[in-house]
Amino acid sequence: MSAPLYGLVLAGGRSTRMGADKAALSVAGRTQLEQAMALLAPRVARAFVSVRADQRAEPLRAAFEQIEDSRENLGPIAGILAALERHPEHAWLVLACDLPLLDGATLDRLVRSRAPTRLATAFRSSHDRLPEPLCAVYEPASGAALAAYVAAGGNCPRKFLMSADVELLDEPNPRALDNANTPEEYASAMSALADSAAAATRRVTVQYFALLREQAGRGGETLETRARTPRELYGELARRYPFSLDAAQLRVAINSEFGDWSATLRDGDAVVFIPPVAGG
Amino acid sequence: MSAPFSFSRTPLDVSALRSALADPACGGYAAFEGWVRDHNEGQRVRHLEYEAYEALAVREAERIIAEAGARFGVAHAACAHRVGDLQVGELAVWVGVSAAHRDEAFRACRYIIDEIKHRLPIWKKEHYVGGDSGWVNCERCAVPSAHEHRHEHEHS
Which pLDDT tens digit goes with each residue over A76-122? Predict the structure, then answer.
C-alpha cells in the first residue's frame, strides 16, 4: 500500500543566473509556478509551493499553500526536506519551477512507475544518465535518509539520489526535463514550445457539398489535422482530393457560421467549404 | 407564426405560405416565385437539383429577412426554398412580404430574393438534354469569381 501523494513546487531559489524570478517567467500563457502547480493539481491530493521565509508574502507564491524552508542556503534539498518533515506520512512529487517543457505525460509516467518500497523514483537525465532530482517522487522513508545526508554535510539532491536506493526511469520525452536556468536556455525552451504547438494536431469535422462532395466522393469526414487554419486545411484536402475549385473561389464556414480563412482551428470545430452558390 | 425561412423536399404550398403573412393591418402583399426554367446559357435543361448547407442557410436567411424588416419597415416576410430534385416548371423558391403599403412590400421582396440568391449556401445542379450536367457557377462559369462582388449578369 503506497503512501498518499502530495505535490511540491520548488520556488525558493534566487534565480541568479536568469536575472529574473524564474517562477514568474511566462510559459503557455501563465507563470512557470502556475504551470507547475497546474501540472501537479490533478495528480496529487494537495499541492504546495516551497518558499524561503522572506518569500512568504511574495504575491505569486502567496496564492498557494506554502512550506517554508527550515534550513537556509542549502538549495532545493531544503525544500524537499521541509516538506517531508511537515507531512511525514506522505510521499512527495517534487517539481522544480524552471522546467518549461515539462508535460503531463511525463508526470503520468512518473506516478505510474512509482516504486513505493524504494526511497524515491526519478528519471534518468537524457543528457548524462544521472538521476534528475527535481522531477521525482520522494517516499516518506526518504525523509530520514535526507536529514542524515544533510547533517553529514551533503546538499546536492542529485548526489543523494545517486547513493540511495532509488527507482530510475528513462524519460519518454527527451526535452521534458530541460531546465531553463539562463535567459538563453529559456529562449530555447520557448522556441521548442512554439515548434510543438505548430506540430500539434486537432480533430475537425468537414462537410462537403455540391461539386466538392462529388470530387471528394463523400459527404463529410472527421480527421486529425496539423492545419492551423481553414486555409491550411483546404490546402491539405486539395492535395488529397481532385478539387477543381481554388480557395479563392470558396467561402468558409466554421461551426455553422461564416468564418475566416485565417481563423485558428480548434479541436472539435466543424468546417464547411462553400462553393459558388446558385440558390434562389 | 411560422418560421421566416424553411426548406422543403416536397412542392411548396404557396397558399399556406401566403396566409401565414395575412394581417388586417397590411394593405399590400408582394411575392416572388422562382420557377425552374427549361434553358440556361444556351443549354436545354431537363431537370435540376438543389442542395443546401441547411444549418447555415437558415441562419443567414433569417438575418436577411430581419434586415428587410428593419430596412423597409414591412410587417411580415417569409421565404421557402426547395431542395432535392425539381422538374422544369416547378416552383423552386417563394418569397412573400406583407406591409402597410405596396411600396415597401415590393422593395423588401426584391431585397430578400436578391440577397438570398447571393448569400445563402445553396447549390444547383442542372441536368441537360443530351446527358451533360453541371453545378451552376462552379463548372459553367468561364471566369471563376470570389464572393465579395455581385454577378453583373444573371445566371438563372
Answer: 999 999 999 999 999 999 999 999 999 888 999 999 999 999 999 99
Contact B144/A248, CB-based, under 8 Å? yes
CB pairs under 8 A between A and B: 95
The whole-angstrom distance between B77's CA and the closest CA on chain A is 15
In angstroms, the CA B88 to CA B106 distance is 26
Report chain B's mean pLDDT, rounded to a whole number: 90
The answer as to whether A280 is a domain residue is no
Residue percentage of chain B with pLDDT more than 90: 85
Residue A269: give the domain boundaries: 200-274
Residue B53 and residue A207: Cβ atoms within 8 Å?
A: yes
Question: Looking at the predicted structure, is the pLDDT value of residue B153 above 70?
Answer: no
For the whole prediction, is pTM greater than 0.95? Answer: no
Do A125 and A137 lie in one domain? The reply is yes
For the residues B45-60, what does the mean pLDDT come to?
A: 97
- Smallest CA–CA distance from A251 into chain B, residue: B147
Task: Say yes or no: A127 and A20 in one domain.
Answer: yes
Minimal-distance CA residue of chain B relative to A250: B146
Residues A278, B135: C-beta atoms closer than 8 Å: yes
**Residue matched to cell numbers 526511497:** A119
* End residue of a domain, out of A196, A211, A245: A196
Instruction: Give the end of a domain, one of A196, A219, A240.
Output: A196
| Domains identified in chain A, total number | 2
A223 CA to centre of own chain:
25
User: SS3 for B61-78, per residue?
Assistant: HHHHHHHHHHHHCCCEEE
Please answer yes or no on whether B50 and A279 come within 8 Å at the CB atom. Answer: yes
CA distance A169 to A234: 43
Residue A245's CATH number: 3.10.20.30
At residue B35, the pLDDT reads 97
